[in-house]
From TrEMBL, chain A:
Gene that this polypeptide is encoded by: nuoN
GO-annotated biological processes: ATP synthesis coupled electron transport
UniProt domain NADH:quinone oxidoreductase/Mrp antiporter transmembrane: residue ranges: 125-418
Protein name (record): NADH-quinone oxidoreductase subunit N
Membrane topology reported for the UniProt record: Multi-pass membrane protein
Stored Pfam families: Proton_antipo_M
Automatic annotation (TrEMBL), chain B:
Top-level EC class as recorded in UniProt: translocase
Keywords, alphabetical: Cell membrane, Membrane, NAD, Quinone, Transmembrane, Transmembrane helix
EC number: 7.1.1.-
Name this polypeptide is given: NADH-quinone oxidoreductase subunit J
Function: NDH-1 shuttles electrons from NADH, via FMN and iron-sulfur (Fe-S) centers, to quinones in the respiratory chain. Couples the redox reaction to proton translocation (for every two electrons transferred, four hydrogen ions are translocated across the cytoplasmic membrane), and thus conserves the redox energy in a proton gradient.
Species this protein is from: Plasticicumulans acidivorans
Subunit and interaction comment: Composed of 13 different subunits. Subunits NuoA, H, J, K, L, M, N constitute the membrane sector of the complex.
Amino acid sequence: MTFIPPELLPAAPEIFVLTMACVILVIDVCLNDEDKTTTHWLCQGALLGGLILTWMTGGSGERITFNGHFVRDAMADVLKVGIFLAGSGALIFARDYLRMRKLVRGEYFVLTVFAVLGMMVMVSAGSFLSVYLGLELLSLSLYALVAFNRDSAVSTEAAMKYFVLGALASGMLLYGISMMYGATGSIDLRTVGNAVLAEGNKSLIMVFGIAFLVVGLGFKFGAVPFHMWVPDVYQGAPTSVTLLIGSAPKIAAFALVMRVLVEGASGLQADWQQMLLVLAVLSIALGNVVAIAQTNIKRMLAYSTISHVGFVFLGIASGSPDGYASSMFYVLTYVLSTVAVFGVIILCGKERDVENISDLKGLNDRSPWMAFLMLILMMSMAGIPFLVGFYAKFAVLQSLVNEGFVGVALFAVLLSVIGAFYYLRVVKVMYFDKGDGDEVHIELASDTKVVASVTALAVLFLGVYPSALMALCVATVR
Amino acid sequence: MGFERFLFYFFSIVLVLSALRVITVRNPVHAVLFLVLCFFTSSALWLLLQAEFLAIALVLVYVGAVMVLFLFVVMMLDVNVTPLREGFIKNAPLGLAIAVVIVIEMFLVIASSKSGGVALSSVVGPVEQGANFSNTKELGGVLYTLYAYPFELAATVLLVAIVAAIALTMRRRNGVKYVDPAKQVVISREGRVRLVNIPVAGDKSEG
């Protein structure tokens, strides 16, 4: 057998990030406990380097290397840039958060970089094997990060739940993959896709496989009825970890659905379309309704995530390129606002976390700027016009109506109106309730304040000028 | 063929019986030992299938490493199994019902060849190879060429597992009174003994 060495250039960002992660791991051992923030800056450097490499080596059509296990295309590039930015935001807020709680340890930052690497692998996956390995790399890093504050019983419990349910989800996914392998004889997504197209929906075992794949993906996304872990993990994890879990992995999960269902199983679109629609409608309904009853702000945002995931699924379920593009737009902008929301929450609490919505009482008197940023973000998530959340919802609903799902679109609109209540309640608490006087006084480190402001203002900006990003999404998904 | 078939049934019966004993035996140490027997007989089954690499890996990794670790853990933890068994009779019907449903479902998927399932008779076995055909060499060749990327990723997953385990369990305890031999060796007289002049009240009587 002659072996042709694979082309390494398309995978340059992954190779760079992995190498840097290993190097940083060694450097971190030699550092004193006092200068662990050096590790943070090194990790930021690794992500920045990955970003630059993605930029430099990207943009020349679809390239497949490593015998089909790795795909580099325009969609992967755009999503990777999103992941790098979200990961970098997660790192910078984590630094302040950990420093205030005296938890700064180098492993935290390195594990974040490994999580980012896992997401990159998922985004560029060309076979079921790399899909699974990327997912495990991401999940394993996240389990450890959730449990990072090991003296906290709540964190440990959240990590255990996340671990057990995550393992169950991986099992489901693997079961589905093994059925697809059994039916098609290949783990390469393109070969599987062609085989599925050829056999159509005649094969019972393929439909079974798709059902398991959708269950696994639903678990990882946190869609109803596989959402049970989301509120507990969001609440139990350190807020900086919640920021990470709520942001970048959503991009990777979107890529996973695109790779596995749209590329790998387009022949069974009629089947997974129905499943995704059911998941989406349930998620939007349950997420919006249950969030109203929450008093804990992280739990409330967890249910809000569930409803947003429903919208992402709606876009994919519409089954048209426009729908995929609108979903991609939705995911990218949702991740942007999540980073900003949790960033502001981290900045508003010092040694003590902002746990309950009532902790934000009178935020306007204490820090008008933070209250204003939170106002923008809440309005955007609620979907109020001229903010990006409105446009994202609008694009998804438009593609749904174009494909003839008018009833579903109406249902989603109605529930979004119900959902607007709990976002606006946060605004009311910030602006119209008087503080008790025992809240923390907010003083901000300058760089995190700048990052929070820039991300929140980007939400405002993209709401007014969404066309450039939307055009990018449309161009890359085709 | 006849002897091979006899071996297959022999190992299969031992495998199933020892697997049953793993969950029915009272003593956890015995359960672990039955599990070792389980792995051992299944590796014999791999050998019958001419998959010698998998057989050896199973013995080396599972029997040699994992199960020994398991034994240590079981012996050190001194698990009390009685409370674990309390709900057994109560939960058994539910568990059995689920097991029956799963068996029926599997049967439906595999046996319903008319509705698109896989007919077992239509599955062809792998090509027969000669006695000097090396499984290990083939696996190695594929692993380091075609599957180099997943292989590296798996290595990264293991690295993350190590980092995570250390980050979560290693703690530097303060106030532990253990002795550092290196410091003991380099100690000098000045570091240990301090001569202090203490004026004594009744000093004049001696002078």
